[in-house]
Amino acid sequence: MARAKRTSRVLNLAERRAAAMESISAKLDLGNGMTLNAYRQRLNTLRDRQAQYNRLLSNVDQTYNDLLDAERELAEWSDLMLKAVAVVYGRSSSQYEMAGGSPLELRQRRSRPSQSAPLG
pLDDT tens for residues 46-81? Predict the structure, then answer.
């Protein structure tokens, strides 16, 4: 399941506000270094960091999927290896038990609950 990518309400608001301020003046300078250009630089910094964060999430998703695939492959190999030990040594052998199998004579059969007749 893919992780949800991040969006920013602050970024969306800032983009709308910058567009509105640009209608006042394309070179808006409010003093003390507060220019439209400086505002857009900060806006772009946040946009770039958010994009980088979302790319990293995608990489994490891919790595997680690769991990799950490797886990499934190993589980299949574990099963195949135990079956191969059973074929070579037999399911009642000590080698089969050493490999992690349960010898046939030690297995307990699951008993099904008996169905009793419904009471009157």
Answer: 999 999 999 999 999 999 999 999 999 999 999 999
CA distance 27 to 25: 5
Distance CA 47, CA 8 (A): 9
Query: Which alpha helices (H) appear in 9-35, and where do they start and end?
Result: 9-22
C-alpha closest to that of 34 among 23, 50, 18, 47: 18
3-class DSSP assignment, residue 45: helix
pTM beyond 0.70, yes or no = no
Distance CA 67, CA 59 (A): 12
- Domain ranges in the chain? 9-104
- Tokens encoding 107: 């297995």
User: How far is it, in rounded angstroms, from Cα 90 to Cα 51?
Assistant: 57
d(CA 94, CA 82): 13
